[in-house]
Design a protein that fits this description.
The protein is an alpha/beta fold and 449 residues long. 30% of the residues lie in helices and 25% in strands.
Length: 449
Amino acid sequence: MPRRSPQVAIVGAGVAGCSAAYFLRQELRADVEISIFERESSIGGRILTRMFAGSEVELGAAFIHSTNQLLNSLIDSLHLERRPSSHLAHRAKFSLGIWNGSRFVLRLPASGLLKYPRLALRYGYSLVKLRRSINNVLRQWGRIYDPQLSPCIFAGPHEMFRSVGLSEVTNEIADVFWAQQHVSSRVREELCGAIIRAIFSQNLSINAFAAVTGLVGSGVNGGTAFSISGGNQKLCQQLLSSSGARLFTDRGIAAIYSKEDRNTIVDDCGISTAFDAILVSAPLDSSRIELNLPPPSGYSIRREEWLAVTETCVAGRLAPAFFGLTQRSVLPDMVLTTEGTTMPFSVITPVAVRNSEQDSARRLYKISSTRPLEERLLNDLFLNIDDISSATWRAYPRLDPKADSIPFRLAQGLYYLNSMEDIVSTLETQVLASRNVVRLMMRDFSLRT
């Protein structure tokens, strides 16, 4: 009898699931049948691209950084077009302010000529120490892409970080890490804290590696950021298309049963399907999936709700009076907030300038907050509101230091693509984990045959 092609199921069609399907097809070519099950009606997971007032707005994963080597390689292979990002410091035409609830502790003009003197004046040599600490972490993390280490297969995230000497950084609180690097409390609280709030909706109690990735993405350490023309969801669409996988949307998974020879998924309608291997992309710690592992797995999945983030899009003009300024005052285009402020939002990001001859100051803004913003607050925050829309989504796990993480292999033939999320939540690390899981699965298959 001819040998049957392995049947592989992927649960979740976010970037981790779609990239895993792509890597599977690259490894096995025609010799694999891939099925992807997605609970929602569309793919992309936490990549959320929406049209608002005639412009594309990234509500979820907003940008990709030039240091993301694996993602950049995929984008080139898929012939996707890049466009400049409007996120944080990556658009020179956007001025920036850090608001502490009563005043702007820092204002940076759109012109790059005055930015660095103002930063140096307020933060002094401590800013150099901050960048040095980031460079050191980046240099160590960059070893993961070295030809000698890149082919390695890791059992879990902590083993991956140990291989590049970053275990202590992932297990250290960010505020403590930077204090040990002699970075001043002013830099930590104002600059680092505001950026971490803006990107992860968390504070300086997250682990130091996640904090460093947030600052790298913000442009503190240079580099460029971009999004994909047509929306970042195109990345998932192209990965999925290239994989040739069968996609089943509106197909939630209720349970996964792992046995010695086969693994079975049970969907929300009670239909059971067996596969040679199952790759779980949906976050097990916050999903409703019942997981039945054979003994002696010895691992208990923590059930923990992810942080909810509300993105409110507003077409209008910000009110200087809200920030204690006169009516004719010029506000920063982008407003970050420090930890401890009474402000219910973490960042106001300009998305686009409206084509209006009457009032060039009217823009499209995206406001990030951990709860929906009240109408009264929005009316105080804006002189006028022409259009408004909001969406709430489960954005991030809590990124505090953890002694352990979920392994990539849960049982024979059952793998977890989202293991890295406990430590750092980026598109690059999700794709990196997916590539590792596919290699791990391939090695397991070769040992079984």
